[in-house]
């Protein structure tokens, strides 16, 4: 028998994996009620459906917002695993919007009028529950269509939306270009979803780093073991099952896919070689920065003159992670200030050194992930 959301949460507390948190408890109770409502919703064609003589009202969704590390993704995990609904989908919001734009492009090529209604119809046919991780809006292309897209999904098609975000609804796309086009989407969220603040005093993600360093040099077995243990602390993944850590395929603008060797609960692990020795560009690094709150990079070598291309890519990567407030853990041959000792790009690398030093500070580590933070 599958435990409900509240029972699962209480079991984690009893096992010592979580500590009591009033903000989390209030959210858990709302998620438990939401799961029950979804499970008890009349099925199309059932006796109750026919008695109503019209589709039942959609189950009201939920918008969970708060600072980084407050447990939003963990509670979404509990809810999504517990809710017994067949037509459900969980996806990172950025990935979902890339997919939406691809679908819209295909519909426009058909030249059969407004492309949004058929896209809404297709998405609604696939899932009656959409669970989004990290709703963030940072470009006008998304902002311009979100109101019509989600009005179609929530109001017309009866899809229930549950999402997490680092920002309150009214602060989404703050100071964005042509923001007036986006305001109806904020109204839709506030009218059709329950908005819950999950912003207790404890940053559990930062706490799990435990004050340990995040930059490990030189490259040796001790450095590798330190970031390995950090990964397991951040993700709650059992070390004894390390051979089965999930991987991921990350959609990159332009239709390309980036393989993520280890991907779990917003934490990604890459080798320096995969990220900077191969032909990568800003789009790859932005996709990583938007999809992960913590990135672990292993095997950063000394950036000698013959590695100027790798150093150039590394600078772009660090800029993307820094701008999106991504936490960085790394193993490297040297400390940041000694990483690029000489060569024709050493002077330009000084800004990267400055950012790498700041990214180790507690103030930086305490900031929220996302370009809107």
Task: Produce the secondary structure layout.
Elements: H1 5-14, H2 22-39, H3 47-52, E1 61-65, H4 72-82, E2 88-92, H5 93-110, H6 116-126, E3 129-133, H7 140-156, E4 160-165, H8 183-192, E5 193-197, H9 204-209, E6 215-216, H10 221-235, E7 248-252, E8 256-260, E9 262-264, E10 267-271, H11 272-277, H12 282-291, E11 294-300, H13 308-323, E12 327-332, H14 349-358, H15 362-365
Parallel strand pairs: 1-4, 1-5, 2-3, 3-4, 6-12, 10-11, 11-12
Antiparallel strand pairs: 7-8, 9-10
Helix pairs in contact: 2-4, 6-7, 7-8, 12-13, 13-14
SSE sequence, one letter per element: HHHEHEHHEHEHEHEHEEEEHHEHEHH
Question: Could you tell me the strand content as a percent range?
Answer: 15-25%
> What's the gyration radius in Å?
22 Å
Relevant CATH superfamily of the largest domain? P-loop containing nucleotide triphosphate hydrolases
How many DSSP helices? 15
Number of domains: 2
Helix fraction, binned, reads 40-55%
What does it look like?
- This protein has 373 residues and is an alpha/beta fold.
- It has two domains: 5-197, 3-Layer(aba) Sandwich (Rossmann fold); 204-365, Rossmann fold (3-Layer(aba) Sandwich).
- The protein has 15 helices and twelve strands.
- The strands form three sheets. The protein has a five-stranded parallel sheet.
- Helix 7 links the parallel strand 3 and strand 4.
- The longest helix has 18 residues, at 22-39.
- The two termini are 41 Å apart.
- The mean pLDDT is 86.
